[in-house]
Amino acid sequence: MARDRRDKYYWKAKDQGYRSRASYKLFQINGKHHIIEEGDTVVDLGAAPGGWLEVAKEISGGRVVGVDLKKILPIEGVETIVGDITSDRTIEKILGLVGQGGADVVICDAAPNLSGNWSYDHARSIDLTRSALGCAKKILKPGGHFVVKVFQGDMFKAFLEEVKDNFSYTHSYSPKASRSQSAEIYVIGKKFLTSPVRRGDEFDVEITELGSSGDGAVLIDSFVVFIKDVEIGDHVKIKIQDVKPNFAFADVIEKMD
Ligand SMILES: C[S@@+](CC[C@H](N)C(=O)[O-])C[C@H]1O[C@@H](n2cnc3c(N)ncnc32)[C@H](O)[C@@H]1O
After folding, report:
1. Among the options 25, 57, 149, 164, which is catalytic?
2. What is the pLDDT of residues 197-248, one digit of tens each?
3. CA angle in degrees (0–180, nearest 5) for 208-210-211
4. This model's pTM is above 0.70
5. Same domain, yes or no, for 97 and 222?
6. How far is the CA of 75 from the centre of ligand 1 (A)?
7. How many domains does one find in the chain?
8. Residue 87 structural domain
9. How far is CA 248 from CA 60, 103, 218, 228, in A?
């Protein structure tokens, strides 16, 4: 490794006995966004050599599973799988370990081998990131949290929207331990949604009830949706704007009669 790449976090990891300087990125992400809690089941996608696994185990003390194309040297109390996170076979193996109840947290620091061609590398990185999101959607518990590394570029915004469609709260965060010249950023999705309505969905509804705040309140597949500026008896077309774990907000896009 070139001398100038051995920065403060490289030496800190050596001193404190972590496998990689990346460990501090997860400490910083977790310090700011409170992703992993004590007792959580955590799945780490693209986990070799295991710096994040050590941190996840230290914070949660619960079940921790690491997956990578490369073999991960044993870590006490951590289970590992050699596999490709883009393959269904790997997802089945993960579910075999965490059980059908699913994981509380999925974290992903995976990165493809870089070719040096910026737009090609960005596209491959977004592909991998999308696979991680697909994997998280299959293994997370309702309300679970997700962290994924993304390389910024023109496809970043579209990816962020996909995360927003699946989580109640979404943030982007650059931990101090990321190298200043790096294009990487971490996208955080909190509270995985399993609700029957999603941002952008449209419905025709009749307002029969008002909530305590005076907004219209309708049930869609037993899920409460609040609508501003309506009265009892209105028949309206609505568009879902924001989804929270137990309710959603919608705007009227058309008055029907
Ligand atoms: C930056 S390293 C992860 C470092 C790790 N967070 C740590 O703290 O030690 C990225 C890893 O992603 C893995 N990876 C890349 N593509 C993958 C894929 N399709 N399936 C599984 N792992 C993958 C690589 O093998 C590599 O070990």
Report:
1. 149
2. 999 999 999 999 898 889 999 999 999 999 999 999 999 999 999 999 899 9
3. 140
4. yes
5. no
6. 16
7. 2
8. 3-192
9. 31, 24, 10, 12
